[in-house]
Amino acid sequence: MTVMLDNASGAPRYMALAEALRARIAGGDPAIGELLPTEHALCETYGVSRHTVREALRLLAESGLIARRRGAGTVVVANQTHDHFTQRLGGVDDLMQYARDAKLLPRSTRTGPLDGAVARAFGVAAGGEFFHVFGVRGRPGETPIALTDVYIRADIAPPVETIVEMGGSVTDWIARERGVPTARIEQSISAGALTEREAEPLNAEAGEAALRTRRRYYDKGGRIIALSDSVHPGERFTYDMVLLREAE
Amino acid sequence: MTVMLDNASGAPRYMALAEALRARIAGGDPAIGELLPTEHALCETYGVSRHTVREALRLLAESGLIARRRGAGTVVVANQTHDHFTQRLGGVDDLMQYARDAKLLPRSTRTGPLDGAVARAFGVAAGGEFFHVFGVRGRPGETPIALTDVYIRADIAPPVETIVEMGGSVTDWIARERGVPTARIEQSISAGALTEREAEPLNAEAGEAALRTRRRYYDKGGRIIALSDSVHPGERFTYDMVLLREAE
DNA sequence: AAGTGGTCTAGACCACTGG
DNA sequence: CAGTGGTCTAGACCACTTA
Question: Do B145 and B104 belong together in one domain?
Answer without folding.
Answer: yes
